[in-house]
Structures are given as structure tokens and as C-alpha cells.
Design brief:
With 130 residues, this protein is mainly beta. Helices cover 8% and strands 45% of the residues. The protein contains one helix and seven strands; from the N terminus they run ββββαβββ. The chain is globular.
Length: 130
């Protein structure tokens, strides 16, 4: 059985880059994946790791349209009141930068970021429509 999710949407905040205690980079982002005319908006958190995280933190900003492919994960914890809490998020394997979000964005020529089991390198994508 496969667990793969593909989502396209706009970032609703700037990405936040953090480092784990072992020194690995993690970039946390939140995106809206609903139609712009939809009254009910759907938001989902995205986590990217290592080189993908570094690239996302360097080139992405709020409003940027992104294509995310990865694994749908669930995080659970106990809240302050003792109740069980959970949230779904995407652990990104690939992030492609679709549009700049702003007409005069100089980050528009940023590469797509990709993590794969065999290759952790950042890839250039000439098919980005900008």
C-alpha cells in the first residue's frame, strides 16, 4: 500500500527553518489548498527536510504557489488539559516552486527542491511557468 499525497496551493506564511538536535534542517510551512473562490478553505502543514528544507527556506515566501508531493502523516500529543490532540501534515519528498506570488519577486528563478531515497540534491526544473 502506498501513502502519497500531491497538493498544489499557496503558502499562507513564510517558511520557518529549524534544526534538530542532531543538526538536520527542517522547514515548516503552511499552505492553503482550496480554490480561491471556495468559502471553506483547507489548510495543511508541510515539513521538508535537509537540502529541500534549506532550499525552501531560502527561496519561498508567503503567497508563493507550490507543488508538494510527499507522505501524509499524523502527529499526536497530549494537550495541556490532558486531552489527546492530533493533526495531519505532509512530509514533503518534492517541492516545486510554481509562481512567485508577486510580480517583482527576484526569487522567481529558484530551483525546485527534491528529496529522494537515492538522491538528496536540489534539481533545476525548466518546466516552471514563469
Amino acid at each position: 500500500m502506498h501513502n502519497t499525497i500531491i497538493a498544489v496551493g499557496h503558502l499562507v506564511s513564510d517558511p520557518a527553518l529549524q534544526n534538530t538536535s542532531s543538526g538536520k534542517s527542517i522547514c515548516k510551512m503552511r499552505m492553503c489548498i482550496s480554490d480561491t473562490n471556495s468559502k471553506n478553505k483547507c489548510f495543511i502543514d508541510v515539513e521538508s527536510w535537509e537540502k529541500t528544507a534549506d532550499t525552501c527556506a531560502k527561496y519561498l515566501t508567503k503567497g508563493r504557489e507550490v507543488f508538494v508531493e510527499g507522505e501524509l502523516c499524523t502527529s499526536t500529543w497530549t494537550g495541556k488539559d490532558g486531552s489527546q490532540q492530533s493533526k495531519n501534515y505532509i512530509k514533503a519528498a518534492r517541492v516545486k516552486f510554481m509562481s512567485s506570488g508577486k510580480k517583482s519577486d527576484d526569487k522567481a528563478s529558484a530551483p525546485a527542491a527534491s528529496n529522494s531515497a537515492s538522491n538528496n540534491e536540489v534539481e533545476e526544473d525548466s518546466d516552471i511557468p514563469f
